[in-house]
């Protein structure tokens, strides 16, 4: 992943270039796209890699929250679920309908009330395991948006006994905001089951006495305090323990230990469920400490591909020329919606301003915005209220806006050392099914260094990126046909 020391360096370089420009000593690149300032940029980066742009730094929790806030649907996947079951355990059949799960009528009503017609891919396999008797432990990994939260919420609601007025399910989340999002799902799904109550174990929400609510959802530190220091919760009475967003959890100092300490207080027969969007070594090690004797299910992510994307590059000398090229493209072809990626906030802000002056309806995602504000911007764009979304990569990481047909790399994606960030390139332009039949990606090249990056991206994907002359309207028109 690209970090922001490079962004900072580019910011500084841009600022320097502006002051140099005002002294009329502009470093103009050659027509073939070479530019001596490319090398200068690299050395600036090298000299500045300690000065990171902290404001732009996104943590995983914010990313995850953003995804939840803007998502209104399941992520489509045709990949098969991979199941690793415990030895000598029951065989679980996957289900194709919610009826097959024999849910309580109030819960079935809740599920349908949320507009779910049938279980998602991961739910087909995970739900029968989670609802089985005796309770089964589960480690489940699948990409964000595939229905994990809805699955464990249904499991918790199914397992509680509303007649018992004490906590029976604990669910730990990495942040207060993420806990609230899960809480909302519990409230929606449990809408017709009002006897079941929910409480948030989050800082400042001290209850002062033993809890009566059956479900407690919160962050690990407060949850641990409520179990140990304040004794609001009797851990011995817990039937279901859920650890959500394990990959986000382990990125936060202290969360792992706190979660493990909570888990150790729970009875042996308590059902342990752990969910994660990714499964790197560290997550896996943590998962195994939290969930003894687990069933494991994994849903592979759809492969991203460049096969159906037409890729072009445009040679320019400076950002003004890149902007002009962009205007020419807009003048020649009809673009329903486009996403434009810039390397720095400053360039993104400038470009958004220029585009608005040209009469475009522009949305800008910027690092200073709160997560909720960003979600609102993306939502407006997704709803078609704006036609162009200008953003830095840091802001847009992980965001899917399906209807976008044109992606413009105003700056090519690079990592902190100035090398091509192939993963980000693929993610920006290559989503499966994102473009329907055909998509268009246009890369702006403005220096020897960026030409070199483009060449390396071509080599990496073994896919030719064609040159496009944006001064030739006929040529531009052809790319859209
Ligand atoms: N069976 C279903 N049918 C239709 N929509 C569903 C179904 N299950 C979940 N959804 C919806 O799909 C979206 C994603 O589901 P959910 O939040 O459970 O996924 P997730 O894997 O937990 O994602 P994240 O990791 O981001 O929390 C939500 O809007 C949810 O309401």
From TrEMBL:
<dbReference type="InterPro" id="IPR027417">
    <property type="entry name" value="P-loop_NTPase"/>
</dbReference>
<dbReference type="GO" id="GO:0005737">
    <property type="term" value="C:cytoplasm"/>
</dbReference>
<keyword id="KW-0694">RNA-binding</keyword>
<dbReference type="GO" id="GO:0003723">
    <property type="term" value="F:RNA binding"/>
</dbReference>
<dbReference type="InterPro" id="IPR014001">
    <property type="entry name" value="Helicase_ATP-bd"/>
</dbReference>
<dbReference type="GO" id="GO:0016787">
    <property type="term" value="F:hydrolase activity"/>
</dbReference>
<dbReference type="InterPro" id="IPR001650">
    <property type="entry name" value="Helicase_C-like"/>
</dbReference>
<dbReference type="InterPro" id="IPR014014">
    <property type="entry name" value="RNA_helicase_DEAD_Q_motif"/>
</dbReference>
<dbReference type="GO" id="GO:0005524">
    <property type="term" value="F:ATP binding"/>
</dbReference>
<keyword id="KW-0539">Nucleus</keyword>
<protein>
    <recommendedName>
        <fullName>RNA helicase</fullName>
        <ecNumber>3.6.4.13</ecNumber>
    </recommendedName>
</protein>
<dbReference type="GO" id="GO:0005634">
    <property type="term" value="C:nucleus"/>
</dbReference>
<dbReference type="Pfam" id="PF00271">
    <property type="entry name" value="Helicase_C"/>
</dbReference>
<dbReference type="GO" id="GO:0003724">
    <property type="term" value="F:RNA helicase activity"/>
</dbReference>
<feature type="domain" description="Helicase C-terminal">
    <location>
        <begin position="308"/>
        <end position="476"/>
    </location>
</feature>
<feature type="domain" description="Helicase ATP-binding">
    <location>
        <begin position="129"/>
        <end position="297"/>
    </location>
</feature>
<keyword id="KW-0963">Cytoplasm</keyword>
<keyword id="KW-0378">Hydrolase</keyword>
<feature type="short sequence motif" description="Q motif">
    <location>
        <begin position="96"/>
        <end position="124"/>
    </location>
</feature>
<keyword id="KW-0347">Helicase</keyword>
<keyword id="KW-0067">ATP-binding</keyword>
<keyword id="KW-0547">Nucleotide-binding</keyword>
<dbReference type="InterPro" id="IPR011545">
    <property type="entry name" value="DEAD/DEAH_box_helicase_dom"/>
</dbReference>
<feature type="domain" description="DEAD-box RNA helicase Q">
    <location>
        <begin position="96"/>
        <end position="124"/>
    </location>
</feature>
<dbReference type="Pfam" id="PF00270">
    <property type="entry name" value="DEAD"/>
</dbReference>
<feature type="region of interest" description="Disordered">
    <location>
        <begin position="1"/>
        <end position="60"/>
    </location>
</feature>
């Amino acid at each position: 992943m690209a970090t922001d020391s490079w962004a900072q360096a580019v910011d500084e370089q841009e600022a320097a270039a502006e002051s140099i420009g005002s002294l009329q000593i502009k470093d103009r690149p050659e027509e073939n796209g070479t530019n001596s300032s490319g090398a200068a940029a690299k050395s600036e980066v090298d000299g500045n890699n300690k000065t990171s742009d902290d404001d732009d730094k996104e943590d995983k929790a914010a990313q995850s929250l953003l995804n939840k806030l803007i998502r209104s649907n399941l992520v489509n996947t045709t990949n098969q679920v991979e199941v690793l079951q415990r030895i000598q355990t029951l065989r679980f059949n996957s289900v194709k309908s919610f009826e097959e799960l024999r849910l309580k009528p109030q819960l079935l009503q809740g599920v349908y009330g949320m507009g779910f017609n049938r279980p998602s891919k991961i739910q087909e396999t995970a739900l029968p395991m989670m609802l089985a008797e005796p309770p089964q432990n589960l480690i489940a990994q699948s990409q964000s948006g595939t229905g994990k939260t809805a699955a464990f919420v249904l499991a918790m609601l199914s397992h509680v006994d509303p007649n018992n007025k004490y906590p029976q399910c604990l669910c730990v989340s990495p942040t207060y905001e993420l806990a609230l999002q899960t809480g909302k799902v519990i409230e929606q799904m449990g809408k017709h089951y009002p006897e079941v109550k929910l409480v948030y174990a989050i800082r400042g929400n001290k209850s002062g006495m033993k809890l009566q609510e059956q479900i407690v959802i919160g962050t690990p530190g407060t949850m641990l305090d409520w179990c140990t220091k304040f004794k609001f919760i009797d851990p011995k009475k817990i039937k279901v323990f859920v650890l959500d967003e394990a990959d986000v959890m382990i990125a936060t100092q202290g969360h792992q230990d706190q979660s493990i300490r909570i888990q150790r207080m729970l009875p042996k027969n308590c059902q342990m469920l752990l969910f994660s969007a990714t499964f790197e070594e560290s997550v896996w090690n943590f998962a195994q400490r939290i969930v003894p004797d687990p069933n494991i299910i994994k849903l592979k992510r759809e492969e991203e591909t460049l096969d159906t994307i037409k890729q072009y590059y445009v040679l320019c000398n400076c950002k003004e020329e890149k902007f002009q090229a962009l205007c020419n493209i807009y003048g020649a072809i009809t673009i329903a919606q486009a996403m434009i990626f810039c390397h720095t906030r400053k360039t993104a802000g400038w470009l958004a301003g220029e585009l608005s002056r040209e009469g475009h309806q522009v949305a800008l995602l910027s690092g200073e915005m709160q997560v909720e504000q960003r979600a609102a911007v993306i939502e407006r764009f997704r709803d078609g209220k704006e036609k162009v979304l200008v953003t830095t990569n840091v802001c847009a990481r992980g965001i899917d806006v399906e209807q976008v047909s044109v992606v413009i790399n105003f700056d090519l994606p690079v990592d902190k050392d100035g090398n091509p960030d192939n993963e980000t390139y693929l993610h920006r332009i290559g989503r499966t099914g994102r473009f329907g039949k055909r998509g268009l990606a246009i890369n702006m090249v403005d220096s020897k260094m960026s030409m070199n990056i483009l060449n390396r991206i071509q080599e990496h994907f073994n896919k030719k990126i064609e040159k496009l002359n944006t001064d030739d309207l006929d040529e531009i028109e052809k790319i859209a046909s």
